[in-house]
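From: lab user (bench 3)
To: helpdesk
Subject: output format question, protein + pyridoxal-5'-phosphate

Hello, I'm new to running complex predictions and I'm not sure whether the block I got back is the full result or only part of it. Here's what I submitted:
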Amino acid sequence: MATRPRARVHLDNITANWQRLSTAAEGAQAGAVVKADAYGHGAAKVGAALARAGCQHFFVAYPFEGDALRRHVGAGAEIYVFNGVAADDDEAIALCRRAALLPVLNSLEQLRAWRSSTGEAPYALHIDTGMNRLGIPMGQLGEARLLASGHGPDLVMSHLACAEAADDPMNARQQGRFAEAAARFPGALTSLPNTAGHFLGPAYRSDVTRPGIGLYGGGTSPRQPALAPGMTLEAPILTVNEVPAGDTVGYGATYTLDRPALLATVAMGYGDGFLRSLTNCGIAALDGTFCPIVGRVSMDLATIDVTAAAGVAKPGALIEVIGSHVRLEDQAARAGTLGYELVTGLGARVERHYDR
Ligand SMILES: *Cc1c(COP(=O)(O)O)cnc(C)c1O
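Helpdesk reply: Thanks, we reran it on our side. This is the complete output you should expect:
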């Protein structure tokens, strides 16, 4: 009998989503962003499944993530490290060399240090085209070009700030700047679109795309096609009780029953990453029937009004809180956030199961 929260990770859905994004990539090669343990889905399994499906470009945030990924994607795949390596971090530089990772260098300082300590070792460059987060500013491209001379970057990338809003003028501004920057590094592969960037049209085409959230069935671009859930997150019912009208539920007594109800208490709370902001607004699905989360989500537990699914509400039954009924972005919106935060925040107590 299940007694812990569990995530069933659907590797077939993730590879099917990757194929769909490849089709939308305007002839580019779709890569895969598997940072933060593949958005909580498990980078080793996801990386291996995508490598088998033909993915050749993987993106992580840290060298240690890339090092752990290497043996799962094979020696032939490229692994890029978004956060780059600090100029004086000899350990990170050595790790990149050992695991054949390409750091995405984000400043002239990082570029200078990488070139002087590694010589001909491959690397990527991030150009900041207006997000003002990471990357070499447009005004420093001339210097970057000089530092790259003799051995240019294998890949030049930038990141879109507003790709979910197709009509935002920021997109075209960034695209124009990126084209200008990429022209300075003629031998390099180009990489601009994240998930939402796949749906901005052919002007945004580049050699390699960087989908993350779409692989896992999320994303909020109104233009994106239906994608399949990367996981089904389920909470087991611990106890079921009939509770009379007028009673309240949970800490702070924030929910009052206006009719008698059948309440199920499930093993899943904010200690598992099930956000407290789902209090009195989250939903769950028991055997396909939608049931509301009532009362405060606490550390280990949440309470669900299962009156509508009384016939199947039994201890040990699993209630879906993310999956094919409760869509990731719908649940996230109820919590006032995005699918990214919900899946990357899932804790170590959530057991991961893989469908193959
Ligand atoms: C996380 C990340 C991505 C993936 O973005 P999604 O919106 O999840 O597709 C792409 N590029 C960079 C630089 C990132 O940091």
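A quick orientation on your result: The chain has ten helices and 20 strands. Let us know if anything else is unclear.
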